[in-house]
User: What shape does this take?
Amino acid sequence: MKTIIFALALAGLAGPVAAREPGELDCTLGYAKLKAEIEALPGIEPNATLEGSPYRALAHPPSYTLFTFTLPGAPGHPAIVRRHLVKQGDTVVLQNSACGFGDLAGFEELKREFNALDARVKDGLSK
Assistant: This one.
């Protein structure tokens, strides 16, 4: 009986589990499961991927999100990058998150490449 009361007390302290928004990255799922979860999102659609590019992109227009999956040969492969547009007041901010499942140094290089790309996009929008 004491065990049941203790378990109920712990459950009450934990509070409700916060639900993830569609497409929010949960790196604990691993590359294959997370990729499959993203590909199964309602409204997901292929985005332009340059031939020979080590990336594959999928867009999720309902959430203003672009997902990029590395392919063999990309830095940090396998990895997934999520770029999400969020309105904050009168401005739109690009929020990034990423999950790396391969080489850590390559993953850090991948994040630097995306940060540089975002800076170029931001500069282009402000002109």
In short: Residues 47 and 58 are 5 Å apart (CA to CA). The longest strand covers residues 79-88. The two ends are 68 Å apart (CA to CA).
